[in-house]
Amino acid sequence: MARSQPRKRRLRYIGEPPSSAPNVSSSQGQSQAPVGGVASSPGHSSHGFKGKLAAMKSRFIQSHRGPSISSANPIASEGAQENPGSRQVAKDVDTRGLLSKANLDPDPALVGDDVDVARQAFESIKPIPCIGQMAVETVAQASTAVAVFQNLSSTHLQPLKIFNDVVTTIENVHPYAQIALGILRAASQLIITEATLDNAISELLRKVASVYAFLLEDDTIKNIDTIKVPLAKIARVISACAQFIKDYSEVTNFWKRLGRNIMSETQTAIDDYTKTLDELMQQLRDCQTQDVQINVYRVIEDLNMEGMAYAGGAGLNMLKKCLENTRTEILRDIINWVNDTRPDAPCVLWLHGQAGGGKSTIAHTIASWLKDVGGLGSCFCFARDRQAERREEKMLTTISCDLASRYPAFRRSLGRVLAEDPSLKTTPDLSQQWQKLILEPLLKAAGAIVGNVVLVIDALDESGEVLWRKHILSLLTSKEAANMSSVRILLTSRPLPDIERALRDAMNVRAICLDDVPAELTQRDITLFVSKELLSLKDSFRPPEIQQIVHKSNGSFEWARLACAFIRPYRDGLTVKERLDEVIALQPAEGRTLLDTTYSAILESAIPPSPIPLARFGSVMQQVLLMIEPVSMVTLDSFRECFPDESDDYNVAIILRFMAPMLDGVTNLVSPICLLHSSFYDFLTDRSRSGVYFVDTSNSYDLTFASLRVLSEHLQFNICGLESSYLSNSEIPDLAERINKNIPLHLSYSCRFWAQHLQKTAFDPILAGLVVAIVGSEKILFWLEIMSLLGEVGQAADALFCTTEWLQGPDGVEDILTLVQDGIAFIQNFGSVIAHSSSHLYISALPFVPSNTMLSAKLMPKFSGLAKVDKGQPKEWAAAKQALQGHTSLVNSVAFSPDGKTIVSGSDDKIVRIWNAGTGEQMGGPLQGHMSWVQSVAFSPDGGRVASGSDDKTVRVWDVEKGMQIGGPLQGHTDWVQSVAFSPDSKRVVSGSYDNTVRVWDVERGVQIGSPLLGHTASVNAVAFSHDGRKIVSASDDHTVRVWDVKKGGLHGTLICGHTSTISSAAFSYDSRRIVSGSDDMTIRVWDAKRGVQIGNSFQGHTDWVQSVTFSPDRMTIVSGSYDKTVRIWDVGRGVQIGSPLQGHDHWVQSVAFSLDGRRIVSGSYDNTLRVWDAQGYKNMINLKLPTDNETVTTAYSICFSSSSSSHALQGSDQLLDGVLQEEEDVRSEPVKLHSDGWIRGPKRRLLLWIPPMFRVPFYSMWNTAVIPRGSCIELDLSQMVHGNKWHECYVKS
């Protein structure tokens, strides 16, 4: 698309020059002038002069930005520094010396002698003087103590070194003991490699050594399986000790510790570890297992992870474990992989198999065992019935939080990463999450963590979105992941095609298929399982009966579980023996599995296949399956009371109480109803498998109707009875209790999920009426109030977006659609204040709703006692919807995708980024490859590709879906590429360059087509294809526009002349009949493309160089961007500017583009941001930048933001001192202040009013008596505003 400027290239030698920059002497060829003046040099062309002027502008901007200051490192505040050299030596010892020892088979006799020697040396050790005495000794005495300790440490470490040799010879132990031994070995290696130990922790080292010496005794090794439980606990404590020792020396050095007052807490930790180890050792000697409290002490700094999404409830389920002595072989195999220290060991183990094979049980067993020994990094589980929680979006941030809470070294490294870039806490970019929040901290923490870091990801196949899985799988199989030799990722799933394609050939993935486990092992394990499940019926079940079930299961644990559940008495009428006979007699019909046959048999015995029971079964199970999150029978019944058909109002228990073999939670009324296995869902929703018990999940009408009716009947103002508006939601001490008391579960569910059900339902006038009853009345605010209290405001805008999609198409819904769109704008503008305080939804958001909106007309008559905008009240929603941030340098070029859903941008940070145009979130990772500034980007008309041109002299083409470059760079230009554009058929790309040429490229073959188009005598700044594909337009520093014949490869017609300076941009109209151009002469001109003559007068209004221009799709308007920091829209027919400039960027506007539907404009700026504008409501805009100045009031009794101080001042301002009159004077007189986040706060940070960004600057100051001219500042009338304990009076009940 059209975009370029040679002036910015003068920045090339300012700051960090590219490697290709010539070595130019600072005194050579320079001419200086004051800012705003002109520096010229004889003999330079016009574009050379222009470049120098741009360089001066750029230097001026850079000088005012100031130097870049890196964030302070909170971890380093104690003055500790890491010695990379010593760490590398330690690492070399760990990975080379110890591993070579581990591969030896030591002579048992020699090992025994070594143990005896170590024990004798241990007994001869005399106690070291106490730490408290050492702290007051002289430096010379401290140095002597260090030397003594270093001599003693070699004796302490001897049992650990011997253990490393011996443990590799222990075989055929229980997997639980095996995992404990692995942790003990890893902990010993970490302690051995620690070279900076001192007297402060020598006592702890002595105790650890005594434990290892005991573990080396013959009796201990022989009975390792019988002591596996206390052994696991010892492993956990020893691991904690190793981390404590390593962390202690990492955070501060020896001299710091002598000077700091941490001796007592250090001694407390050592005493606690010693006591715990003594208790566990005694249990080992007595072969007993008792509960022992294990405290973990960590020397770690605080880390603020507020804002990082965490998926609560997605972690380890300790109840979901393998039965004792089952799955032994595969568990041992996985543990061997976990403990494998070889650098080439695969970092991912994919455990897969068909439904019912026990994948999740194995994963949770491994995770729980690792947790017992202190070796679990994180466990993250997906579940089909929890897809509404969008766990996939929180997986990587949750894992990062888990690792930070588990490993101090990781926590410190993560802290440094977040200190440098706090935006990473909330980034939706999976690539950045993986790289910055997990891999980078792990890499920096290497060598300070006991053993391998184990991550368990269970049921990936139930994560929902295939596209998300594609991104995650690409990260897990990446080269970066493969290089993390100390990371182990256990991944379970069914072998879905997309998962299998990604993992089957990956180099760093090992696959284990449960379907390939030998039948005799599976039968052994199922025998143990069935015996335990039917233990209460042991009088009726002898080994022959149990073997019948085992044989029938054919290796399926889920079928065995289902059979046992069927056999156990859950209904009357049949004996246990008769139920067993029924199960054994089941024979799958042709094409059906035994599991399906069993499901059918259980359903037939519980639900008679007659019309009424089947109808009720279908209705209830449809409700259960369609619930976005599991709810109890009580809540299900509450919804059924609101179903459209009164005959559906019956208790769900009449169906669900017979479903115990397949459903969890049916034995009481308050537990959530969940499917016990995903295979039952697959069975019910496949008519070919379930027959008359088929459940149709394609129609969500009943639940949609019920949800909307619940909202209509139960929403109310101030539902939790909040007394004061001065507190944020988080400051209300009993908010959770209020929510539980006043917001029933069916109302909470309806608030969160009504729109998702609506989206799955066909348009219906009755449902539309229910939607209007909510969005067209004050109930929309009551709904948002509950969403605020529940912490779900982020979902509210999504709900209304879903509603707009649902309303597309039908006639007569324009008013509803307008109301919904007003609701979206309301949330977009006031979402932060709504989320912060539910009361300020009314008193801080409502006053600023534009007066001409339908939402204002519906709501404002219902409310009074609000602040008013006396001067400057907006009439329509502001044009700017959001600022897209992510580039770390100047944004040079932007473009919409053909469907308008995504935006591409190119920047001086050498990166191309793709954005979601609706949410402002970055999509996928950055497109990296250019070696210098990206000057121009363009979407292909088919939406599948992006082209980019750069100062590295290349054009590159990218696959949008894969996020990868297609082929190699297109090379041929001999200087910077200024502009690129696609042909209408997406097969060709045209480029313009500073080398004065235009070139056309074949995208498929990656080659230049024909010769360069020659004629321009200076830099080509912009190129574009006509929309019929026959012509190319180019604009140049030579002040001309040229049109080229694509087929002939030559000039089409005559030169287009008229501009008096550099032309930075040119574009065709969508009918290819006109050309628009923008120039440094600050004008925009429209030309007849065929005749090459100007149409009408030039468009004037910009006050600086015009950098970018383009037509709207309907050819009626033109949008332009300029160095005067504005975006302007022009009427083509009348040749005049429409309305006011769109202001918001605080630096030069470099690029503009229309969406294909003409509704939106995107602009890119040197302020490093993109902004998306509403082209139909562009007359006003929101300045999303925070103010730099704070407004301060010196007294809490005279609060006014208006020139009419006597009549517009806040009434009842003394409420701000409620409860603080007995406080100190400085608290009582604390000023009322407008903070940078927009909140006007009183004493003790009490919330008075929130000011939207657009009203903060310019804002009428408390210190002004008048502002001239009057009306140039925003003025507020607070005289009628209710606040504090009277805030609820704002609602006028009808």
Structural overview:
Residues 1-12 have a biased composition (Basic residues). InterPro entries: NPHP3-like_N, P-loop_NTPase, WD40/YVTN_repeat-like_dom_sf, WD40_PAC1, WD40_repeat_CS, WD40_repeat_dom_sf, WD40_rpt. This protein is an alpha+beta fold and 1294 residues long. The protein has a five-stranded parallel sheet with strand order 2-3-4-1-5, with helices on both faces. Strands 14, 15, 16, 17 and 18 form a five-stranded antiparallel sheet that branches. Helix 5 (139-167) packs antiparallel against helix 6 (175-193). The longest helix has 29 residues, at 139-167. It starts with 45 loop residues before the first helix and ends in a 17-residue tail after the last strand. Residues 1-149, 252-261, 880-884, 1177-1198 and 1261-1273 have low confidence and may be disordered.
What features would you highlight for this structure?
1294 residues; alpha+beta; globular; disordered N terminus; 5-stranded parallel β-sheet; 5-stranded antiparallel β-sheet; 41 helices
The dominant shape is: globular
Strand order, sheet with most strands: 2-3-4-1-5
Q: pLDDT under 50 segments (min length 5)? A: 1-149, 252-261, 880-884, 1177-1198, 1261-1273
Q: What is the terminal separation in angstroms?
A: 56 Å
Helix vs. strand class: alpha+beta
Rg is: 36 Å
Number of helices: 41
In quaternary terms, these chains amount to single chain
Q: Biggest β-sheet, characterized?
A: 5 strands, parallel
Instruction: Tell me the number of strands.
Output: 44
- Give the percentage of residues in beta strands: 15-25%
What integer is the average pLDDT? Answer: 78
Helical residue percent band: 25-40%
